[in-house]
Hints:
By secondary structure, this protein is mainly α. Helices cover 81% and strands 0% of the residues. The chain contains 14 helices and no strands. The protein has helices spanning 3-21, 23-43, 47-71, 75-80, 82-88, 94-122, 131-155, 162-173, 175-189, 197-218, 224-242, 256-283, 286-318, 326-338. It is globular and about 55 Å long.
Amino acid sequence: MSVLHRAWAIVWKDLLIEARTKQSFNAMVFFAALVLFIFSFALGPDTELLQRVAGGLLWVGIAFTGLLSLSRTYQNEETSGGLEGLRAYPGDPRAIYLGKLLGNIVMLLLVEAVLFPAAGVLFQANLWPYAGGLVAVAVLGTIGFSLVGTFYSALTVNLRAREVMLPLLLFPALVPVLLGAVNATTLILEGDLMGEAVVWLRVLGAFDIIFFVICIWIFPIKSLGVAALVAMLVGSYVGLVVVPADAAQGNVQRLMYVHVPAAWLAFLAFFIVFVMSVLYLIQRDERWDRVAASSAEIGVVFTVVTLLLGMMWGKPTWGVFWTWDPRLTTTAILLAIYV
């Protein structure tokens, strides 16, 4: 049996189970509608504001809804013990990834077919004249989201805290997808008089092609380090080269694609230090102390990266390398404490 036949068998199995139970689809649709309703309720009756932020809020809803689908990607096989059976089945294991990928794409596109009209009603935006462009954005954005999401779902399937680790790993890698989808959707809804949406569609297309090749290449995942390194290199290339320069700040704004994730990782590392230290004080187990020490070193490295990139961005933007802003000052104190 060829790779495509195996992949199609997995897709058909998953879609047939969903057609009979409708558990994922119903949950995703109602959750997405609830998210959009909350956003619409929070912003109030300001029609101009709702139309201006419709693109961003729509893709936030899609991202959170897609997370529900990704968390269930391998759930049926895991609960019934069929995951090992899939792995042991003769043939290329990449068919498992392709099958799950296609299933996630189909599910998310079906949800978006309901979500886009609902967003048009809630945000008082006429989407029909821009249907062609919005379909292109939805397809490219959904493929990019599913490529990365299916990959990280396989990466975290055997972790105890996979419900926490999946979004932590996924959303930083999805920054180029969400950036391209939100900007393209907003420009299309505004009429796109300058034809700028095409640039963001190219960004989404480039992201999809690059990550498809990378994910197929390194699946099945045998090394978390290799997967992280490849994802970091691809994300850096897309953010620093493929994404167009900011209209106001120019190329210096590209530093934010590294500066912000570095800050997230630094604070996450220091939070792990806190948790592991508490566990060590309670249990007196040296393993927790070693994890805390290792995580502290990682936090120091990423804090230094964060501060240096912030200074490089601050000089052309603010005119100075450093300002005694409370956030900058407390971050510098945090670094001094750990050093």
